[in-house]
Amino acid sequence: MHQRALRGGLIAWIMAACLVGAAVATTVMARAASAGCQVTYTVGSQWAGGFSANVAIQNLGDPLSGWTLRWNFGSGQTVGQAWNAQVAQSGSAVTASNVSWNGSLASGGSTSFGFNGTWNNSSNDVPTAFTLNGVSCTGGTTTTPTPTPTPTPPTGTPPERTVRVFWLKPSDVAYDQRYPDGITKVLQEAQRFFKQELGKTFTLNSPVVEVVNGDKQRSWYENTPNCGDKYWWSVCNMEDELRRKFGLGAPDNRWINVGEISAEGDGAGGGGGNGWVILSGHDADGAAGINGPMNRWYGGMVHELGHAFGLPDATSTDGTCMSASLYDYPNCHFSPTQKNGILNGPFGSFLS
Q1: Rounded to whole angstroms, what are the CA distances from 23 to 9, 19, 229, 263?
Q2: How far is CA 229 from CA 8, 223, 224, 252, 266, in A?
Q3: I need a labelling partner for 156 at 20 to 30 A (CA). Which of 49, 127, 177, 296 fits?
Q4: What's the distance, Cα to Cα, between the start and end of the chain in Å?
Q5: Spatial contact of 190 and 256, defined as CB atoms under 8 Å apart
Q6: Does the pTM of the predicted model rise above 0.70?
């Protein structure tokens, strides 16, 4: 970990440079998306008024960076304690979503979760229809063209004192829903982690990610000098464009700002500091589930948000997420000093 100072045009703010993984340039291409799944629901044990069940999911389509499984109970069952998933119920409708460590499902990959529930002592029918990320789980696959809409920023201005998140898509990069979806998951996991560590957390907007059509082609962001070292060119060009388009400051007393761009070149990275996180293509790819294990990208975002909230790098690999221990996420934490630094820092009032 090390720090690099940026030029005065960025109000001389200091970004803590942290390459969260090896730099991999990936051009996002329009393609056909394959989706499919198989679900096995098993009642493990049953007793008067209660039962336990296990739900196994196999992804038969393209890799997933996060999943949500839905089904309906037909006999008045209710879900209680669950493990390895976040499970909620409204009437007969049940929704189960991945937790931080089991969101990535490769093609052919499987995961499972379980829960305890209640039943009416008369009928405990096994659900017969499931959907995974909106796709019916029939044991087969379907292939549909990936839409390539022209995204626009959400109407209106997000509430102040929130974390505002942008994905900048260069003009020659095809739209891919995995990117806003994946970046959303990474920020939501960081939100959960802050709550766990601090007892308070930041607020995200809806939608979490504002998709921004870049003014230039990918190569322009990668090869136009900005902020000195080539390491910074892609992310500084992105940051300049976001500031211009949205009237953002650096720092900005209205929002913590997170920007990711699908560009990086041969020396790109990113960092965080003074109310900003700016990340290049390999971080965006990682969030989308196509560049390494997800804990790397979860830990990296926690690390850079720590900088955005005012923390420096740790001086050694000390088990805190502000050191190289971020690679062990979720087995890294904030130290008491770091917690005080965030809570009493320039953006501590953003937490609730």
Answers
A1: 26, 8, 16, 11
A2: 14, 11, 11, 24, 12
A3: 177
A4: 29
A5: no
A6: no
